[in-house]
Amino acid sequence: MRTGYDTFDESVKKRYICNSYDAAKRLFDLLEDILEWSRIQRGKMPWQPDHYDLFNLADETLVLLQASAEKKQIGLYMQISENTPVYVDAQMIKTVIRNLVPMPSNLRKPAAR
User: pTM of the prediction?
Assistant: First the structure.
């Protein structure tokens, strides 16, 4: 996109801009999660459990990995039903979920489903 910008039609430019925005937002959210996790690890943030839907927490976490997985042609599938109530600290469970999913950048070929 940095080169040849003028050669793209408006719909392609808009798609690239939207994709860039989404990727930047996911990266920001991931960095924010990591900073909160580090505060928890250092005892600077208390454990704050509350009632959540596990599906939503897992979905938010997997979205962060989706772009990288798509580049590697790797499918990420979640087998958690919607409306799965849990009583957890949201940041801690997101960290656990991130650690359970192999980072797509570490995988070399598409995974079989």
Answer: 0.58
Confidence label for 13 from pLDDT (cuts 50, 70 and 90): confident
Cα–Cα dist 1/83, whole Å: 40
User: Quick check: is 3 in a domain?
Assistant: no
Number of Cα atoms under 13 Å in the Cβ half of residue 61: 25
- Does residue 38 form part of some domain? yes
Residue 112 forms part of a structural domain: no
Task: pLDDT band for 26, please (50, 70, 90 cuts).
Answer: confident
Q: Which domain holds residue 92?
A: 9-106
Contacts of 111 (CB under 8 A, 6+ apart): 74, 75
**Domains of the chain: total:** 1
What is the rounded distance in angstroms from the CA atom of residue 101 to the CA atom of residue 91?
16
What residue type is assigned to position 52 of the chain?
Y
